[in-house]
Write a structure and sequence with these properties.
This protein has about 80 residues and is mostly helical. The chain has one domain. About 70% of the residues lie in helices and about 0% in strands. The protein contains 3 helices and no strands. Helix 1 packs antiparallel against helix 2. The longest helix is centred in the middle third of the chain and has 23 residues. The chain is rod-shaped. The two termini are about 25 Å apart.
């Protein structure tokens, strides 16, 4: 899952959780389960953000995209 995709999913789950809670009540099991799904997606998004640290080569290439080491050849 990429960052944009997971953010879209979070927004959809929030809308769905609000709708479920409006219909079944704020203290219902369905409402709690819907918000649990939102929390799980938010935790995954946070985990992905933390685990994607750039390597020293990636940092170098960001600063020096014209360097030989940073060239990307497409077939």
């Amino acid at each position: 899952m990429n960052k944009v995709n997971i953010q879209d999913q979070i927004e959809q789950e929030v809308e769905q959780a609000r709708a479920v809670c409006d219909t079944s009540g704020g203290t219902s099991a369905e409402c709690a389960a819907a918000w649990d799904a939102v929390e799980e997606l938010q935790a995954e998004a946070s985990h992905q953000k933390q685990s994607k640290r750039k390597t020293s080569l990636e940092q170098y290439c960001d600063a020096n995209p014209e360097a030989d080491e940073c060239r990307v050849y497409e077939d």
